[in-house]
Amino acid sequence: MLRIHFSGNDLAGVRMAAQPDVLWETILSFHRLRDRRGSVVYGEWRSEARIRLGGETRLLGALVPSRGYFPDFLTPAQGILGLDEGLDAIRATPPGRLHTELALIGAARSGRPAVPSALRALADGGGGPLGRLLGALRAYHRAAVEPYWSHIQARVEADRARRGRALLDGGADELLASLPPMLRWRSPVLEADYPVDREMHLDGRGLLLQPSYFCRGTPVVLRDPELPPVLVYPVTHSEAPKVRAPGLPSLAKLVGHTRSEVLNAIGDGGTTSELARRAGVSLASASQHAGVLRDAGLVATLRHGNAVLHTLTPLGAALLGGAGGPREPREVREPRESRCYARNGPVTS
Questions:
Q1: Residue with the larger pLDDT of the pair 172 and 237
Q2: Whole-prediction pTM
């Protein structure tokens, strides 16, 4: 059982990640690749990914066990910004931290905090071994995650819309109560099914909620209690990830070119003026198209001060995500406690 303890300040500091995190999805998908469960959802994806990989996963296999602890440095906060930014952050990991976290892999396996022999060169912090790790992560991401990214985005966007509605309806209490069934909000404690018992005190730092497509069964938190608190949790889905991404031209055939541009311009939300500017149309045109999209159930409109704020509904997010629409990150998020399987195992992260 995982128990996350909140104060009043922590409740005020609960927030949703702006979009899927590329490194969390990469690392957690590697768990799914070697897990025989969930064949209905992940079976076809596993087969396709393994063909693209050609068996080149030895270094990642040593670093990310099929279950249990994996190092926090693999999922830096910058992963929310994209793969390049996330890999740059891994490259900048101090040697001391590399050694400490890699030694925990040995502790999780044998009870002794020693760096496994396959990872000793990496633990020394040399540019060569670290460069090989970055290359392995990039190659794995290209084969197993990148082709499915629009599908992953759509599922995460739909989850964010659902949590956003809960937050608007009842504040942080309602948001935490709306999380998937393996998470139970019993104020002031959020309980979760977990491989080990762990008490996590937020101490006024708040909590970042990070929905994840490849997280399965249990949530994930970073092992290091000094890192900003993050809770990675599974989004609800029952369909296999798809490579299909027809792009905005196909969406335009369905709803019209200008209307598809307005839908895409909404992104993470925007006023009518912002939609007009982003889509390159007049204010009146943006307002008209937003109204049609709202009537179709693709857009929700809320009053925000003297303006109105347009946001995508889950249906709108899924339609746009399936069309490969760009979803640019709007905010940086913080590190987390890694591990969707038992990140917190005997000596977890």
A1: 172
A2: 0.73
